[in-house]
Structure formats: structure tokens, C-alpha cells
Amino acid sequence: MKKVLSLVRRFLPLLFSVAVLVYLFGYRTDPRETLETAKGVEPSMLALAAVLGIGSFAFQAARLKLLVQVIGHKVSLWRMFLYTLLGHFYNSAIPGGSVGGDAIKALYLSQSTGSKATAFAAVLVDRLCGLFMLAALALIVLLPSIHEPSMRQAAYVIIGFTGCATVAIALMTSRRIRKLIPVGTSRKLPFSRAIRAFDDAMQAYRGHKKGLLAALLMSILPQAGWIAMHIAIGRGIGIQLDWHEYAVLIPVAGMVAALPISFGGWGVGEAATVHFFELRGVAKSQALVLSLMGRMLQLAWALVALPFSWAMPKPKGMKEAIADEEEPTERGNGASVEADKAPQAKLE
């Protein structure tokens, strides 16, 4: 029974993604029109989008390198770039995997740093920097047009996303709140492993405010590259929107796709893109192609790193090595763990 439930839990997000995509292609858009839109993309703009996409990955790798360097480890930019691409590949192309893309990136990174706790903390903080900067940029660009009904819907998503994330982080970092949790009960809480992993990350980066600020500011570059990639695709398929509209709608669709209800955000991200771009007068088929082309370009670049992974340790073996280690022990406050223990959360 446990095996059945485990399989259902692993593959249900994939089934949900497939169902949403079938709905989008079969009921929300005209398949022929969608195919014609994809075929009509301007090659020069598609090539530009591909360059911007790989640039976004490069800036992500540079940010992760900075975060690792801040806590005393040196890893080459090439390795960071490779780990970033492999992490994206596992997030976007391996359904039902037992190890998520961020965890894969952290496991590979631990081979270079020699510290599993440091690697997991760096990847987790890297993800948080990216998400917060994405929301902040979108909200800043949105403010001048917040009076428009379609933009108000986008604002609700951004504010809701950042508000929930801020409350969650405040709860996890508040010592007063954690002291209220009886010793031993934190393991029974939902997402307890993620909470312990987050606590380890805070321990590792305590006292490195300047480095965290630098990483947060650096997050502007990968997010700008990601948005610019979609602008190039949009221009290539005839979407007539200003850059600032893309700078709001693409992050909003990305936030919706980040919800842990589908496989890698597939389907959910496309549905959000169709919805919000349609509010701005964009045809459903164009919005769907915009989202799918952006995903496929990023996945194509991630595939470039796949041959290099054949010479690296297998993710399953690395996961087992982590699992064989002693479980993190709880401190007196009931929620944090020893900084030298590796968190065993699935970082997604």
C-alpha cells in the first residue's frame, strides 16, 4: 500500500500537467492555429531568445558561485554552470523522480565543496534570492499601471506570493515562535524537512549580510535575461506588447508555475500565461506558444549538459550516501538542526 501511495504521490503532478496541457490544446486554443503560430516564428528572434536563455543560466550560475564563495568555498564558474543546467533538466524532464532538480544541483555541488550542508544551504538561498527579486521587479514595473483591471489581477498574484513567502520565512526564522514548539514535535509538522533545511541555511549565512545583498542584487541579471528571452519570442510570433507588460506577466506566470501542484510547472505555467496575456489582448494560441517555446529553449540548453553528467556520480547513489548519514538532531528550540549536518529535504 505504501508503494502505491508513493507512486501516486510521485506521478500525480505529471498527470495533472498532462491534463492541463490537453485542456489548453483541446479546449482553450485551436490546435491548428497554435501550430501555425509556432511555425511562423521569426528565426532571427528565436536565435536571439536562445542566446538570452543561455545568458540567464550563466547569470544564475554566477549568483550561486557568489553564494558559495561567501561561506568560504571556491568552485569554478563552469562547474556552477553545469550544475545549474543539470538541475533545470531534472526539474523539467524527469517525471516522478525521487530527487528534485534543486536537490540534484546541491548534491553535485557537495562533491565540489566537500560539505553537504553548505551545498544545500547555498542552493536554497540561491532559489530564495531569485524568487524574491523576480517578485520585486515585477511589482516595481507594475505600479504605474496598477489601476488597470488586468494588471490588478497580476498584482494580487505578486502580493499574495510574496506575502505568503515572507510570512513563512518569518515563522521559520523566529526564535520566539520556534521556542513554543515542544521538543520532538517539529519532525511531525508538514514540510518538517524543508523547515530544518531552511534553518541550516540561515545558520550557514548568518553574519554574511553583504554577500547575501550582493547575491540578491545579482538576481536582477538572470531574471532580466529570462524576461528578455520571452520578449524576443513574443516579437518573433507577432505579440504586440510593451516590454514592461512582459516584465509583469512573465514573472506572474512563473510564480503560478512555481506552485507545487504540477510537474515542473508544465501546464500550470502555460494556463497562467494564456490567462494573463489574454487579458492584455493577446490571442490564446500566441500566449500558449510563447510559454511553450520559452520552456523548450531552456530545456534544449539543459540537454547540452547531459553528456557531461555521464562522467559524474549518479544522483541515486549520491542520495543514498546522504540518507546513510545520521539524521539531523534537534536543538532545544524544537525546530533547528546542527549546522554541520546535511539537510535531507527535497528542495523544490
What does this structure look like?
With 348 residues, the chain is mainly alpha-helical. It has one domain. The protein is 73% helix and 0% strand. It contains 16 helices and no strands. Helix 3 crosses helix 4 (77-93), helix 3 (43-70) packs antiparallel against helix 10 and helix 3 crosses helix 14 (284-304). The longest helix has 28 residues, at 43-70. Residues 323-348 have low confidence and may be disordered.
Number of domain units: 1
Shape: globular
String of helices and strands: HHHHHHHHHHHHHHHH
Report the uncertain regions.
Answer: 323-348
Residue fraction in strands: under 5%
> Helical residue percent?
over 70%
Number of β-strand runs = 0
Number of helices: 16
Overall pLDDT confidence: 80
Distance between the termini: 26 Å
Gyration radius, rounded: 20 Å
* Class derived from helix and strand content: mainly alpha
Notable traits:
348 residues, mainly alpha
Topology readout:
Layout: H1 2-28, H2 31-39, H3 43-70, H4 77-93, H5 101-113, H6 116-142, H7 149-173, H8 175-179, H9 192-205, H10 209-218, H11 220-236, H12 243-257, H13 268-279, H14 284-304, H15 306-309, H16 315-323
Can I get a quick summary?
With 348 residues, the protein is mostly helical. The chain has 16 helices and no strands.
